[in-house]
């Protein structure tokens, strides 16, 4: 039976681990799907390439406030789609080819792999092998809810008009109508993309708002601003779907989560897009065979990314990214991959799996994890929500600075954007920041930096220049509006 020094399951962030420092090891890499994983192929990167296109289309369609006459003349979907995947697909193929053919010490198994014992594995086609050390980087997949009338096994299969992010970006033609189920990140981003490109989009949200995990000000104001550009039915769910050659007929009903919400009439739609959350790929991995702990549906890890078995680190087994992380974000998966890489090297240097002392291991940093939603409008956040800060009992100060009250906001004719900053009243440390509006994902960065390095809010405001009249003046003014105890 073939034996490896290291097995990596999943080529999203897991693929970044093996560099020249692993040349002296026999490495196996398993990938059941597309090389490069979710972010490259069906997640962050293609979606943001579509979002930029959608931003251009929306700006062209809606410029009257600036005294110019532009219009959106229509979308050439094959050109839009092929620009995106013409760049991405060669990267997938190149990564696969490099690992498969150009690295003598690496064996690629292009198929599903699972544990058969603590250090033994089998592939879907029956090849068995063993490995001393393992990295679980198997990610997550779209959660497909049971919806009456929708055949969950046929979702994302050719010709079936019910899709997830895995297939919706590769449609052969733009549909005339699309119904999106969900009110989170993915629903918010795809609703913007497809409606800006001319699709008649309806968003079904079972709760009373979108982005409900965000700070309450964001939830409330994003739901309002998003609803101004998109048809949104809150408190609504699918009672029955009928899939036919003409599309999908949806009978709707109140979800019961929003008092007195009106139930919309039945709708007929060309395509249903499910955007109802993601689940870690823990099933089918044979985790029981290795005694691996699962907590809250995720592989349990300690703060050195060591996988736990009965609460103790399993020697030589690490996990990273969506399969084990509380944050389903690529920058977090990448950070955790760097921790795993460092700790694997320490473990290898120590001579036996699990031999490295804790003091030789690097520690994951999940403080001040930022995120952005690339929708219309854009949202960005870092740190705690105001509700969480209040619940912690901290004495805090909060300031909401409207984009409309800074000069660049006038240039943008912005009426909805804002920067909200929450800080500790006595230490002056920033506890959370929540932004909505143009370039929110960019102008949040100095706040992320301040939180990461512990820069007090008043020093951040006053001890640097802020370019006038650029949009970060909204951040500056929010900082200046915080009130501290002296
Ligand atoms: C539509 C969408 C948009 C997103 N946009 C953003 C964004 O803008 N910014 C951001 O930070 N995050 C974004 N994310 C989240 C981000 O994509 C993920 O957090 C990140 O890709 C997770 O990386 P990973 O390495 O943990 O897993 P993945 O990239 O999912 O890689 C796991 C790989 O493991 C393979 N695999 C699974 N099980 C097995 C097995 N048993 N054997 C062999 N192979 C297996 C899978 O095929 C997959 O390729 C987005 C996600 C989606 C779905
Ligand atoms: N820009 C980004 O960073 C980005 C973009 C996309 C996705 N992501 C990551 O991927 C994760 C998954 O995104 P998502 O939008 O699928 O999840 P989400 O958790 O953000 O939102 C899921 C939505 O689906 C709803 N929902 C869940 N089950 C449902 C059901 N049975 N019926 C109807 N509605 C249901 C929820 O109420 C919620 O509104 C995000 O949490 C995020 O971490 C990040």
UniProtKB/TrEMBL annotation:
InterPro entries: Class-I_Pyr_Nuc-Dis_Oxidored, FAD/NAD-bd_sf, FAD/NAD-binding_dom, FAD/NAD-linked_Rdtase_dimer_sf, Pyr_nuc-diS_OxRdtase, Pyr_nucl-diS_OxRdtase_dimer, Pyr_OxRdtase_I_AS. Residues 4-325 form the FAD/NAD(P)-binding domain. It comes from the Bacteria. Keywords: Disulfide bond, FAD, Flavoprotein, NAD, Oxidoreductase, Redox-active center. The keyword Chloroplast does not apply. The keyword Disulfide bond applies. PROSITE patterns: PYRIDINE_REDOX_1 (PS00076). Gene3D superfamilies: 3.30.390.30, FAD/NAD(P)-binding domain (3.50.50.60). Its cofactor is FAD. Residues 369-478 form the Pyridine nucleotide-disulphide oxidoreductase dimerisation domain. Belongs to the class-I pyridine nucleotide-disulfide oxidoreductase family. This is Mycothione reductase. It comes from Brevibacterium pityocampae. The lineage of its organism: Bacteria, Bacillati, Actinomycetota, Actinomycetes, Micrococcales. The gene is mtr.
